[in-house]
């Protein structure tokens, strides 16, 4: 009696008997995720307020809603590098900086200032680059740009407050607080200037 034929498999096997179809499927999913949609636009097709870089000619996301902006995290377009280089530091700062800060009662406020000052510019810029192509008009774009600038202001004011406090630490009580309050008022003045 002849042996029965062995059924064919869709993926190749290795010595352990596992198939590579799982890895092929994974590669297809990664390729699909990194392949931008066909409706990416050129620079000339963008609204006037988004035509600020004439050297990047292709790869622009069309105007879209919040869901579309969030889904653009998963494909390559003209803002991908900006989004990633601002998003990765947020995760890194939040994962590492809190463990290094003195959270005792006397230093808790300064630790929060340092943490917020460290992460604020990255958050503002991440949100700006991710949502800059919202379909809600030019006004929303400029609000996002202001949010980006606010993150920088927070970094420069709150982020520097621990350094200012350390600088005047040995001064007498009234002079120390006069200088800290003066610095804070100058920061607020700079925000509204």
From TrEMBL:
Bias-annotated ranges (Low complexity): 8-22
Binding site for Zn(2+): 129
Sorted UniProt keywords: Membrane, Metal-binding, Transmembrane, Transmembrane helix, Zinc
GO CC terms of this entry: membrane
UniProt membrane topology term: Multi-pass membrane protein
Keyword Metal-binding applies: yes
Pfam family, any one: HlyIII
Main location (coarse class): membrane
Record-annotated membrane-spanning stretches: 83-103, 109-130, 150-169, 175-192
Protein location: Membrane
GO molecular-function term, one example from the UniProt record: signaling receptor activity
Segments for region (Disordered): 1-22
Stored PANTHER family: ADIPOR/PROGESTIN RECEPTOR-RELATED (PTHR20855), PROGESTIN AND ADIPOQ RECEPTOR FAMILY MEMBER 4 (PTHR20855:SF138)
Family per record: Belongs to the ADIPOR family.
Protein name in UniProt: Progestin and adipoQ receptor family member 4
